[in-house]
Amino acid sequence: MARRLCCWRAPSRRTSSAPEKPKRWRTARRSARVGPAPPAGSSSGAEQTWILLGCDGAGKSTLAAALCERASRSDTTPTCGFTTASATLRRQRLRLFDVGGGAGIRAIWDNYYAEAHAAIFVVDASDVERLEEARRLLHAACAHANLAGKPLLIVGNKSDLPHAAGTDELAAALGAHALAAGPRGVCRTSALSDAVAARERGGSDDSLASSLDWLATTVQQDFGSLEERRRRQAAEQAEEELRRKEERKARLAAKRAERERAEAAEQAASGEAVADLAEALDHTKLCDS
Predict the structure, then answer these.
(1) Is residue 57 part of an annotated ligand binding site?
(2) Is 157 marked as binding a ligand?
(3) pLDDT band at 167 (very low <50, low <70, confident <90, very high)
(4) 101 annotated to bind ligand
(5) Is 102 flagged in the annotation as binding?
(6) Residue bearing the bigger pLDDT, 270 or 111
(7) How far is Cα 78 from Cα 221, in angstroms, rounded to an integer?
(8) Which one, 6, 267, 274, 288, has least CB within 10 Å?
(9) Among 129-133, 247-251, 259-263, the range of highest mean pLDDT
(10) CATH fold label, 3-9+43-221
């Protein structure tokens, strides 16, 4: 089971000092390194689909903006539903699924797991009061059959703010090591907005890029099986959605037929009542004559 734990502090807006060299921790079983040629059977040119998950306000849309090289941070607003975007990371083509993190929209998350090759879970490391909420969301997502075991990168955002959780604290609070087996990494950055700011200056956030490179390489090295799984799960999900749609149509048709039968019975009863009344009136007229 490959694991990768990265810790860094991206350049702060309050200082011009160079970023610290990333520190890496690995279990006895080493994770895949970034850089070597992909193994036979991998696909280096195929588009990868990543889904961005996390609580509202964690920084998912800001990360998507950084990957898409948007020119301004001001256009990053909370996602209310679901948006897609295209990006390129060191010649690797990406399709990003940015799903809203609000409590009222989280129910749609599992609609998009099947299409994803990998997931990025963004958490606000400075909001320690919501780490338990983030942990529940993370574990629920990773337990879903369509996402379990797929490559996962956990990004701790805003680590330069007061009271932000450290890397080990963040990993422990999120229960990162108890997730379903599969490649996963944990990293921290001082602010994802720094990545967008770096794009504006014509540079890049090398610290964040190293973990994104790890995710892209991990997917690339196992792309054949991940793509086969994506296609199969997407087909199964489409079939299930069609089945549910047909069931809804059948239920609506049954209700409509029942309503029409009730209306017909009511009309028939009303017609019989009118006929009985007419017959009674005719009988009365005969008696009077």
Answers:
(1) yes
(2) yes
(3) confident
(4) yes
(5) no
(6) 111
(7) 33
(8) 288
(9) 129-133
(10) Rossmann fold (3.40.50)
Is 79 annotated in some ligand binding site? yes
Tokens representing 278 are 């007419």
**21 annotated ligand-binding residue:** no
Tokens read off for 62: 């800001």
> 30: which 2 tokens?
């080493």
DSSP reduced 3-state for 30: coil
| Residue 98 assigned ligand-binding role | no
Contact status, residue 58 vs residue 79, Cβ threshold 8 Å: no
Give Cα 13 to chain centroid, integer Å.
Answer: 30
The pTM of the full predicted model, rounded to 2 decimals, is 0.68
Q: Is 75 annotated as a binding residue?
A: no
Joined tokens for residue 65 = 């903006």
Handedness of CA 133, 139, 145, 151 (dihedral sign): positive
3-class SS of residue 102? coil
Helix (H) or strand (E) holding 167: helix 167-174
Per the DSSP assignment, residues forming a β-bridge with 24 are 6
Return the axis-axis angle of helices 223-288 and 206-221, rounded to nearest 10°.
80
- With H, G, I as helix, E, B as strand and everything else as coil, classify residue 119: strand
Annotated binding residue 54: yes
Q: What percent of the chain has pLDDT over 90?
A: 26
Is position 158 annotated in a ligand binding site?
yes
58 has a pLDDT exceeding 90: no
Residues facing residue 95 across a β-bridge: 49, 86
Q: For the chain, give the mean pLDDT.
A: 75
Return the axis-axis angle of helices 60-67 and 192-200, rounded to nearest 10°: 30
